[in-house]
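Box 3.1 — From sequence to structure: LUD domain-containing protein
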Amino acid sequence: MSSRDDILARVRAHRSAPERALPEIPFFDPPAGTDLLATFTQSFLQMGGTLPECGTADPIAVARQSVSTARVVCSRVPEIPGNRPITADTPPASLADVDVGVVRASFGVAETGSLCLTETDLLVNTLGYLPQHLIVLLDPAQIVSNLHRAYQRPEWRSGHYAVLQSGPSATADIEGVLVHGAQGVRSLRLFFVPRRTDTSGTAAA
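Predicted structure (token representation):
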């Protein structure tokens, strides 16, 4: 046993305070019947996000049309193909010239209008920040009420990276002028698209 292990063992053996259960923290859930989709939409728009008008059209078709004129499109979703391949070995800095990134969020937070993007969603983490514009697909069924519920999600424990992104990058530090894209994407467009499941019942991209 090393000196460090010996010291720690002695400390543990002489602890006098008994183990105490952690306090129970409330989730501050909204009233029953609250429309989480409507709440999320309002919060998302307040944070500067964009919800393209789809009407009765297929949102995937609208999203494909919106990237049709982009020079470099890097996509992580099969529904919207890109022309810039991405693999786990793609150098993060190489995505600096991407015009549009396309990803699917793991879930959304109604309280803040935030989207959870994980290393699985992005594959290369800079895909969420280096493109000029970001398109995100979100399953409306994957919206939680608030941050208390968000941090109960398994994404925070199942991987090495997860972030809550709220709208496009923005700063108003200089002369009080709001500038989008100063530290990240200039726009964030969201499409509500349910996640497909394969014949085995496993969630697909």
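Summary of the box: DSSP finds six helices and ten strands in the chain.
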